[in-house]
Input
Amino acid sequence: MKYKIPFARLRQVLPLLTLLVFVLSCVPQTKLEYLQDPVVNENIYQLHEKKLNTIKPNDELHIRVSSFDDVDYNFFSSQTTSSSLNYTNEVSINLISYTVNDSGYIYFPIIGNIYLKGLTIEDATEKLKNMLNEYFNQPIVVIKFVNKTITVLGEVNRPGQYFYTKETLNLFEALGLAGDLTIFGNRQEVVLLRTTDNTVSKRILDLTKDGVIQDKDFYLLEDDIIYVMPLESRKWGIISNPWSLTLSTLTTLLVILNFFVQ
Output
């Protein structure tokens, strides 16, 4: 003998099931917040010393030279027009930069080959300035990196590779370039991949803890890769289920049960 579930009972069960789906679909606020340690008046943290960026092979350097001399052969003065170029793609970067070759040299007009590998920007600037003293009166030299990149992947709003010109870039600034994490991003599991010589290191950083600010890798190095892991609910597809499809499926299931459950 078949036993039919009263439709009135179905109408009572349906809201409970809907509430269950809603609860499963929600992401707790604590999973969306950064730096959750409590603040007592003011939290002050001692940062690790910022890593110095030194010049290495395949770096692109923008070098601008000017002088107090007003002479016809000072062709470096034409470089000031390069400031109007767009620095956001590889083609424009190559047009206004000097490439450090595999041996650590750049070829610079008048002087020739200059060894810059391992030098900081400040050291390279001073070295080039001293070499140009022979040709110009009080030369002014400005050197900048123009190809520093960071890659941000995973659960962020705009994954991709980003150029930056700042001397140093921290973890939150890098995530800001990618438009911040999505609501599916796991703020407790952010993977940092770093290539050093012939090795690749992998670390997990927890953005919900204030300790990340004091971490030795809070300040990133160029060519670092950040990968934001998804939340478990994202992996199982709970959050991404369309509401209309979920409710329609539940309603259909209850109607079927009403006729076939014994």
DSSP finds six helices and twelve strands in the chain. The helical segments are 7-25, 90-95, 121-132, 171-177, 232-235, 243-260.
